[in-house]
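Let us work through a complete example step by step.
Step 1: write down the sequence.
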Amino acid sequence: MKKGVSILYYVTVVISALVGAWHFFVPWMFRWYDYLPMEYENLIVGIDYTNYCFSLLLFGLSLMLILLGKKVLLLNKEVSYFYFFLTVVWVFRACLASFIEPWPLQPIPEAAIGQLIASDVLAVMMVIVSICLIKSIKRN
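Step 2: predict the structure and record it as tokens.
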């Protein structure tokens, strides 16, 4: 596998892992609970469960792909499927942010715009790596 694709592979999975780890702290950083009436405890718990499970899955899958990176880059088809799935997740996230349901600009417009740009850039980088992997796997 080409060195540039290898570097891009590791950059994408490390960023994905960092987003997964960062997401554990998002409710406190952006004070989600300030916007919810405290009498809706079921809603708060549901949001927490969804966020924690998402964070753990994103971080765990990304960490697994970091640890198995050599196998992916040696074109192990079965392990590559996990990277393809992660790519689909990020492309879906980018489509949500760009076309389907953009993040509201209020109360923090910079965060919304930053998420939009970051998710789009990460999705494009992952698609590039995935296409290179698919082409290389088909050649072998």
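Step 3: interpret the result. The chain has a mean pLDDT of 92.
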